Amino acid sequence: MKAKKILFYCLAALLAGCGPIFSLHPLFTKENIVFDEKLLGTWADDPNKPENTWEFARLDEAAAGSLAQEFRDNFKRFYRLNVTGKQNDKVHRGSVVACLVKLEDGLFLDVFPDKFPSGEQDIEKMPLLYNAFFFVPVHTFIKVDFVGNQLKLWLTDDEKFARLLEAEPAAVRHEMLDDRPILTASTKELQAFMLKHAGDERLFADEMALTRKSR
């Protein structure tokens, strides 16, 4: 197998102050991906900190190869999400793929990487080629709602989620890795779990309100 065909990625810690829950499987299928143009544009959580932004754009065709084969013809239903945040006078950035998932009346973002931490999409362009084989693709999920001119997000927090698992060990299939839960449930199981626990603050623990800056 050619190295360039092996796409192993790592999701950067783009959610400042939050340890997101990771899943080995996506939340979406062809049937429940939706595209909403209201999401397109640049959003900020604090007008006094213009460097903290979430920018949603249409995914370009060049990035379609990072999607599973069954979704490549529908790459226009996915977003490019560029996140910028400043901490301790240092600017941090992340560039990932996102899609909106509609489950009954709820909206969720499934966010996953298509680039290595050093910025490449092609494994053969990695400065440390062999290191790339140790990275694995993961997904994280965000609950979403549009309220007026705001985009409301509810982020996951692995420490708070651990409380849910302590109370309900069989709530969703998972493994613990270095005291951190990694979801191993199938997409169908994940969807059922999200619908049941969408309002549980132990799952979607941290609320964020973004205001549109530009479109």
Largest sheet: 8 strands, antiparallel, barrel
Give the averaged pLDDT, no decimals: 85
Structural class: mainly beta
Question: How many domains comprise the coordinates?
Answer: 1
Order of helices and strands: EEEEEEEEEHEEHE
Number of helices: 2
Number of E strands: 12
Proportion of residues in helical segments: under 10%
The main sheet orders its strands as 3-4-5-6-7-8-9-12
**Ends: how far apart?**
42 Å
Instruction: Report the C-alpha radius of gyration, rounded.
Output: 17 Å
Broad shape:
globular
Instruction: Point out poorly predicted stretches.
Output: 1-17
- Beta-strand portion reads 35-45%
Can you describe what's shown?
The chain is mainly β. The chain has helices at 158-167, 187-197; strands at 22-23, 33-34, 41-44, 53-58, 79-87, 90-103, 106-113, 140-147, 150-156, 174-177, 180-183, 204-214. The protein has one domain (3-214). It has an eight-stranded antiparallel β-barrel with strand order 3-4-5-6-7-8-9-12. A hairpin with a 2-residue loop joins strand 6 (90-103) and strand 7.
Give the gist of this structure.
The chain is mainly β.
